[in-house]
């Protein structure tokens, strides 16, 4: 890649906003009850109006759908449930017409056990595809090779009768980990990415890519650090940077792609290496530390109120650390694996609109590339289901069973699932107040949230004070305000119990964000440097109330009040 194109790459996607499309729940044009590619193409004008530059399309490849497409059985295909390759080509054409870009989800840490590679691999120990996957003999005393646990519950090893060996599956038992030690696997991964890059795809979101390099001794985890489930032996593993640099040299660089790595349980040091342009690995990284502040001792399947100070501390440390290291954050509150932040960190009831806008302003003022998960831009909350039969996610149904096997009552287990389940984010997009929220003319694969009559795109596009227009304004700001891109982050609140306050400072402007994360009025004392600002230089650029606070030594914020100012010059 030439320096110029590197600089170009550093420019365009650092001012961009990415919209994440979970196709199964986005827009159904066939009445199947499942969203499809044409359904996305039909909504490109909507996304363009929102100001979106890049669409992240989640897996639409052939798949048995045990993990809603993250179990790929043919990497160069479109699953008929989502449409055809012609539909995909039409989507690409329509994106280009609008100067929008496509980021495709690539899942190469594992494949479906229905992939031809695995079908071959399991036939015999000397099959040419045997080493495409990770096979191990039973432990000396019999049983699983080690004590590593699947992220979806249970052992990470699955026994295969045919050859008397176990294969590694860090997620579902039908998602077999690929063996990246095998250079043929690495070649296959690069080849399949080139296939999509040749079709004009502008970038990739790389699923759990920091798990691809495993400690080849496959030791038991003695439980002394992290979660004791073996992740320390395959997370940010010994050759992970080597493998990613190979992908950069073979694909990302030559095609000048924008790339984001999903980094499970990672560290800042690794994310600096993954995303500093001089390392020639990824454009940016997702980390999840800020979304574990309501996990007691890091345990996802237990409940506690979220730790506000921890949330602010993590967001701040990653802002400062990644900037100092030359890395670049993918900024997000929501995705298809997380309960909705609106319900998790704010109020999805009486103060829903103010809360949704507060979360938006807080995130979009930070340094990095913001990601908007479908429905976030209209303030969609978690659904209020009261029966486990409403849930569809393999992780949720597994964990519901396991929690009860471990002694929790049905209501205890249900209470945890209802707050933690990935299905909270996967309810169908709410387009209008018609039947099934305009998502489908059929029966949706998962229930539409009952509040769609008052939370939908149609109503909000017509209401300038809506959450939609709040996001639209923030996304537009990023394209015109350099301080949002290059401003140095400084935290301004010292462990305030209600308020998160920070500044972004560059050579010409200072951006200020104050957000009240509480349901009560909050008073915040500005640092001295900001108390007496020339009002002629102070510009309110975003806020969630038409009565912004009066500027002075102390700023009073209403419940979930949130404002963004720029101090010019
Ligand atoms: O997610 C990996 C991931 O970190 C989460 O799934 C998390 O590990 C899980 O919720 C357990 O807490 C990626 C995809 O985003 C997810 O949808 C897939 O299920 C997973 O990888 C396997 O491909």
Radius of gyration: 24 Å
Overall 3D geometry?
globular
Number of strands: 20
The SS-based structural class is: alpha/beta
Span between termini: 36 Å
Beta-strand content estimate: 15-25%
Largest pleated sheet: 8 strands, parallel
Low-confidence stretches: 1-7
CATH superfamily of the largest domain: Glycosidases
Number of helices: 17
Q: How many discrete domains?
A: 4
Widest beta sheet: strand line-up: 11-10-9-3-2-1-13-12
Fraction of helical residues = 25-40%
CATH topology of the largest domain: TIM Barrel
CATH architecture level-2 label of the largest domain: Alpha-Beta Barrel
**Ligand list:** 1-O-alpha-D-glucopyranosyl-D-fructose
Question: Mind telling me the CATH class of the largest domain?
Answer: Alpha Beta
């Amino acid at each position: 890649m030439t320096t110029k194109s590197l600089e170009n790459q550093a420019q365009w996607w650092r001012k961009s906003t990415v919209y994440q499309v979970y196709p199964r729940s986005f827009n159904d044009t066939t009445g199947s009850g499942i969203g499809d590619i044409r359904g996305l193409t039909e909504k490109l004008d909507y996304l363009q109006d929102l100001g979106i530059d890049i669409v992240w399309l989640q897996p639409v490849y052939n798949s048995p759908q045990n993990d809603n497409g993250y179990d790929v059985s043919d990497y160069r295909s479109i699953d008929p449930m989502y449409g055809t390759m012609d539909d995909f080509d039409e989507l690409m054409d329509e994106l280009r017409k609008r100067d929008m870009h496509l980021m495709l989800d690539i899942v190469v840490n594992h494949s479906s056990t229905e992939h031809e590679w695995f079908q071959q691999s399991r036939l015999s120990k000397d099959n040419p595809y045997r080493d495409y996957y990770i096979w191990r003999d039973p432990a000396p005393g019999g049983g699983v090779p080690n004590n590593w646990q699947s992220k979806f519950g249970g052992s990470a090893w699955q026994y295969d009768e045919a050859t008397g060996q176990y294969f590694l599956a860090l997620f579902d038992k039908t998602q077999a980990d690929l063996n990246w030690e095998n250079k043929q696997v690495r070649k296959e991964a690069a080849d399949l990415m080139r296939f999509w890059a040749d079709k004009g795809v502008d970038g990739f979101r790389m699923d759990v890519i920091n798990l691809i390099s495993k400690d080849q001794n496959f030791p038991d985890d003695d439980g002394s650090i992290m979660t004791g489930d073996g992740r320390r032996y395959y997370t940010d593993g010994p050759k992970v940077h080597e493998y990613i640099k190979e992908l950069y040299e073979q694909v990302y660089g030559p095609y000048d792609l924008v790339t984001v790595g999903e980094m499970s349980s990672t560290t800042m040091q690794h994310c600096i290496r993954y995303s500093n342009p001089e390392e020639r690995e990824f454009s940016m990284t997702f980390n999840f530390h800020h979304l574990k502040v309501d996990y007691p001792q890091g345990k996802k399947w237990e409940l506690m109120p979220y730790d506000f100070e921890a949330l602010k501390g993590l967001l701040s440390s990653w802002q400062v650390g990644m900037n100092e290291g030359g890395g670049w954050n993918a900024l997000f509150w929501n995705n298809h694996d997380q309960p909705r932040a609106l319900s998790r960190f704010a109020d999805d009831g009486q103060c829903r609109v103010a809360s949704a806008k507060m979360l938006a302003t807080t995130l979009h003022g930070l340094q990095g590339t913001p990601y908007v998960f479908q429905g976030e831009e209209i303030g969609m909350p978690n659904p209020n289901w009261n029966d486990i039969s409403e849930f569809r996610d393999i992780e949720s149904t597994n964990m519901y069973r396991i929690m009860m096997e471990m002694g929790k009552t049905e209501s205890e287990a249900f209470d945890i699932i209802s707050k933690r389940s990935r299905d909270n984010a996967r309810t169908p997009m709410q387009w209008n107040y018609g039947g099934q929220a305009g998502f489908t003319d059929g029966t949706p694969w998962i229930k539409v949230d009952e509040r769609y009559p008052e939370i939908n795109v149609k109503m909000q596009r017509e209401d300038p004070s809506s959450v939609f227009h709040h996001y639209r304004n923030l996304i537009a700001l990023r394209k015109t305000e350099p301080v949002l891109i290059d401003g140095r982050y400084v935290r301004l609140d010292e462990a305030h119990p209600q308020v998160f306050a920070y500044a972004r400072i560059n050579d010409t402007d200072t951006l200020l964000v104050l957000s009240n994360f509480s349901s009560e009025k909050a008073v915040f004392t500005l640092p001295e440097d900001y108390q007496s600002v020339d009002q002629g230089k102070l510009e309110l650029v975003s806020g969630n109330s038409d009565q912004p606070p009066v500027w002075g030594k102390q700023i009073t914020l209403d419940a979930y009040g949130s404002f963004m100012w720029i101090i010019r010059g």
